[in-house]
Amino acid sequence: MTEFIKKITPNAKDDVLAGITVSLAMIPEVVAFAFVAQIDPLVALSGAFIIGLITAIFGGRPGLISGAAGAVAVIFVTMISEGHTKGMLFDTPIDNMGYFYLLACVILMGIIQIFAGVFKIGKFVRLIPHSVMMGFVNGLAIVIFWAQVKMFSHKSLQVSADGVKEYVSSFMTGTELYIMLGLVALTMAIIWVLPKITKKLPASLTAILITTFLVVITGLDVSTVGSYIIEGGGTGLKGEFPTPNTELWQNLPFNLDTLTFILPYAFLAASVGLIESLMTMNLVDELTETRGNGNRECVAQGAGNILSGLFGGTGGCGMIGQTVININAGGRGRLSGIMMALTLLTFILFTDKLIEQVPIAALVGVMFMMVIETFAWSSFRILKKIPKSDAFVLVIVSAVTVIFDLAIAVFVGVIISALAFAWENAKKIRARKRFKDDGTKIYEIWGPLFFGSISAFNEKFDVKNDPDTVEIDFVEARISDHSAIEAIFALVEKYQAAGKKITLKHLSEDCKVLLYKASPIFKDIIEEDIDDPRYHLAANPEKFPKPLGEYKF
Fold first, then answer.
1. Which of 30, 323, 361, 503 has its Cα between 20 and 30 A from that of 337?
2. Is residue 144 a contact partner of residue 71, using CB atoms and an 8 Å limit?
């Protein structure tokens, strides 16, 4: 039994300590995102526990940490607000109706993500270029950095003359600011120096404990986890074990109106959640030099969100900040994610008073070090060495991630990269021209023929002045899409309209099939490639009975 446990968790000590460290860093970020989405922090923490546990056990990437992420939380803000309004318009008005719409939206979000995994959409993350990945990492590092800067402020409740309540933030000043900066610097110094002395102690966890101990014994009046939650409108960290939310089924109307209301938000949240999770998975793959399973991760993320919604928690996804902390702390296996979730639950149920004493400065210091580790500093060095299009994509994705949203940034980056790729390949189409002894003109086509290179392809031919017999040799070309098929068809029609004989040679087998389907005229103008070994095998495999290796091409 002991050997089996060691086999499953060969890195048990590091995984356990890394999980505890991540759970501490998880609390202020999840709570902050709960305030953004205008929901109870305990709802977000419950969601972080459920999603983190499910994805750690069943996900496609050991070491990846999931929770109630801000990228998903901001999507629900408008829906929750509109949901509250809709609830007041019912025949029997329902308070907090936006919360019930949130739970239904999270469940639908999870269903969409499971379908994405079942239909193997996760594999498309491989299409994301490296420049987009670097831009994503840099942009997210900046977002996380700015979120920590906001921790250097106070939130106070103000009531206007007409009774509207609003939380107003004010930046720290004077002694309070200097103490905060000093504690952050102390935490960062411990994380930086400790590994140079010994690697047996997890640097981040040790730094949090030392800074917390210093604050407690000196009685410093600083912002803590407890005060931060209360300032944001919460009542504290104390909660109960998540149980199925029966009020959802009692209050939510299950009809077409509800579906049409939550579907756009669910689809957007599912997309953003999967993109961030799969991008984070790719980052962990690079850091650990291993390979995760994207489709399995999609299913696990979906299952985690469905359970979170059923048990009254909010939606979530993979969290790059906490994942990097976990990897840097030595977390490599599933046990690190499981430990994070269980520790988070323990904090909520039993040790809330102790965790509420942890100074925000210690957690900010950990996050600052994570930002330094996450940001791709090499991008500054390589900007002048990589193609201009890739450099442009890197900068644009970083900027869009900061200004707008992660999903938008990735879509923009992939589209720009695809267009740049198409443009570059469109310029690679070539045509070598020569004549046979009988006067036949031969065009040897080189390069990819697709929608982007059609114009350049058509410019190579001189239908009016060409001889009566023309051959187009595609031996070094590749027909890539329907636009290329249409271009060949149109070219053949031009030559035939001019009363000239045209022959097509060395077309790939799949291209021949498409042309035969397009028009019967190709039966007479496509030449069987009896002289070319590459395509001969595809067209007439029975003429090569011996193993391929026995032929000399």
1. 361
2. no
Comparing C-alpha atoms, which of 213, 224, 238, 182 is closest to residue 356? 224
Mean pLDDT across 105-112: 95
Which two three-digit tokens encode residue 414? Answer: 């992939």
What single-letter DSSP state applies at residue 546?
S
Assessment of whether the complete model's pTM goes beyond 0.85: no
**C-alpha–C-alpha distance, residues 324 and 16, integer Å:** 15
Pairing relationship of beta strands 469-479 and 501-505 according to DSSP bridges: parallel
Q: Is the pLDDT of residue 355 over 90?
A: no
Hey, is 223 helix, strand or coil?
A: coil
Cα 62 to Cα 56, 80, 338, 357, 550, distances in angstroms: 7, 33, 10, 31, 46
Give me the residue label for tokens 């296996």.
333
Q: Which two tokens stand for residue 444?
A: 């040897």
Burial label, 439 (beta-carbon count in 10 A; 0-12, 13-18, 19+): exposed
Rounded to an integer, what distance in angstroms lies between the CA atom of residue 452 and that of residue 424? Answer: 9
Cβ contact 259:111 at 8 Å: no
- For 355-373, letters b (16+ CB in 10 Å) and e give bbebbbbbbbbbbbbbbeb
Q: What angle do CA 305, 334, 276 make, to 5 degrees?
A: 45
Q: Smallest Cα–Cα separation from 271: which of 102, 411, 99? A: 411
